[in-house]
Design brief:
Elements: H1 33-52, E1 55-58, E2 73-77, E3 87-91, E4 97-108, E5 111-117, E6 133-137, H2 143-168
Antiparallel strand pairs: 1-2, 2-6, 3-4, 3-6, 4-5
């Protein structure tokens, strides 16, 4: 796909509901402060539409396979709470929407941030504020998927703690492998 960032296999989809298609923005607008404001208005508009009726979205990409495959249609609606293992929709900094698994939460700059990652991706996404979540996919995670999400989050937390401990001791972490 031409609009997919080359550095990361995003799971992209366009809004499927008829009235929400007009709310799409081009990725270039997110580079400026005005674009960030427009991005937050877009996210708020999509959340508002999803409150009235879940948004039908079409999956683009394979980073959530085998659970979700390219071309699958999924309903996305806001939730009161998001739990590790849920598949959540959010707008990326590059502009497109993404559908990835929520691994857990962490503090970032003194605020709560969501940690997400595609099931077939090696690295997690950049942490994002909970208000950037557009909703949860109407695909119920299995207990095994929830457990894998929590274990992946714990592995990330342990790696970060090891790096901090090594930096505090004044030595660099050992190379992986």
């Amino acid at each position: 796909m031409a609009n997919r960032p080359s550095s990361h296999p995003w799971h992209q989809f366009p809004p499927g509901a008829g009235s929400s298609a007009a709310l799409r923005q081009d990725a270039a607008a997110t580079a400026s402060p005005a674009g960030a404001d427009r991005d937050s208005r877009l996210a708020a508009g999509l959340r508002e539409l999803a409150r009235e009726l879940p948004l039908a979205v079409t999956v683009r990409g394979d980073c959530m396979a085998p659970r979700l495959r390219d071309g699958d249609r999924v309903a996305v609606a806001p939730a009161a709470r998001y739990w590790p293992g849920d598949i959540v929709a959010f707008r990326t900094r590059e502009g497109p929407l993404a559908l990835h698994r929520l691994l857990g939460y962490r503090l970032r700059s003194g605020r709560l941030a969501c940690v997400t990652r595609g099931d077939r991706c090696d690295l997690p996404d950049e942490p994002l504020a909970p208000e950037r979540l557009l909703g949860r996919a109407a695909v119920r995670p299995t207990p095994a998927e929830r457990a894998r999400a929590v274990l992946a989050w714990l592995a990330l937390a342990l790696r970060a703690a090891r790096r901090r401990l090594a930096a505090a001791r004044g030595r660099l972490p050992l190379p992986a492998g």
